[in-house]
Amino acid sequence: xxxxxxxxxxxxxxxxxxxxxxxxxxxxxxxxxxxxxxxxxxxxxxxxxxxxxxxxxxxxxxxxxxxxxx
Length: 70
Hints:
Helix content is 6%, strand content 11%.
């Protein structure tokens, strides 16, 4: 027995991952159980803007690697 998680959207069940290829053409039994899920915060592009800063010397060579660069 394998357990797959799925989401129902507009009456269509969408699995979280594809079924194994060796199940192709086989008859399977599906049991549906409603479970409480944790609310997911949707990520938004640019939501971390201004939270990460690079030092001006970020691209400068590191002193620890001088012997590799000689």
